[in-house]
Amino acid sequence: MTLKHLQIFSTVCRLGSVTKAAEELNMAQPAASHAIRELESYYQAKLFERMNRRLYITDAGERLRHYSDAILAQADEARNVLRDMDAVTRIRIGANMSFGIGGLPGLLDGFCREHPDVPVYAVIQNSSQVEDKLLKNSLDFGLMDAPANSELLVSKMIGWERMVVLCGMEFELPKGILYSLRGGDGENGESKEKEENEVASIVDILTLPLLLRETGSGMRRQVDELLACEHVKPYVIMESVSILSLIEMCERGFGILFLPETVASPYIAQKRLRKIDVPDAEMKREYFLVYHRAKFHTKSMRKFQEYVMKQIPLQSSLR
Prior knowledge:
This protein is an alpha/beta fold. It has three domains: 3-83, Winged helix-like DNA-binding domain superfamily/Winged helix DNA-binding domain (Arc Repressor Mutant, subunit A, Orthogonal Bundle); 91-160 and 286-311, 3-Layer(aba) Sandwich (D-Maltodextrin-Binding Protein, domain 2); 161-284, D-Maltodextrin-Binding Protein, domain 2 (3-Layer(aba) Sandwich), CATH 3.40.190.290. The protein is built from twelve helices and 15 strands. The strands form four sheets. Strands 3, 4, 5, 6, 11, 12, 13, 14 and 15 form a nine-stranded mixed beta sheet that branches. Strands 1-2 form a two-stranded antiparallel ribbon. It has a two-stranded antiparallel ribbon with strand order 7-10. It starts with a helix and ends in an 8-residue tail after the last helix. The model is unreliable at 181-195 (pLDDT under 50).
């Protein structure tokens, strides 16, 4: 099995045709087909199914595709780096939406001040999109939720923060779902009221109109897990890739919004949104530094990884 085999396989996957792959690679079609058969023999697995004159990748083929794309990209990367060992290479970083708002700006500012010679490129997407780019080697690092693919990706926790439940200032919560928190005893042994808080159970909160991130985001995954755990069918008012759009809808009183505390705090302080305490649900957002297990780490990448792990202690709040 050689890099040429993987190049042919990867091209067939991308074009969906052995004939088109052979044409692009300037080789005979029988030679391309033979390379695919050799790969199937080597891995003892069928990589493609042919039905109705169309080619469909199998589950085994899809798994190999992740490895193949990463290996080919890393081979090119290693060649370029080894040609100039002292070259300063650009770092490509992907962050999920929450970390992109709450943690990334400060982190990149500090890194660029300490290493002004290292060029940085950053993209902010949801966690599943960042993970996909890491698997394809189009990003070097992800700052995101724990990845779904733990076989191919290494993840190191770099911090955590609380998730909070929010609604608009004029949003009317059903009186039946609220209850009060009481403090310790007063001077005469009577129970005194704490600072007034709106408090509700997570089950009741989940039955209200919801404003949710799109499927594939870490915040959406957390809410979906709560819904499944409590066996609640959600009433979704809006789904969006934009946190700002969801905040605007929440501020206007359309429904309930779940946000990381660092993102929510300015809006609570400005009295644009109000927080609802949910004592029976521990909601916590964890963030990880993620990279491909087979990733070739350049000098620039090692500097970035060392800086991140030094600046953000494990299991600490981002606040």
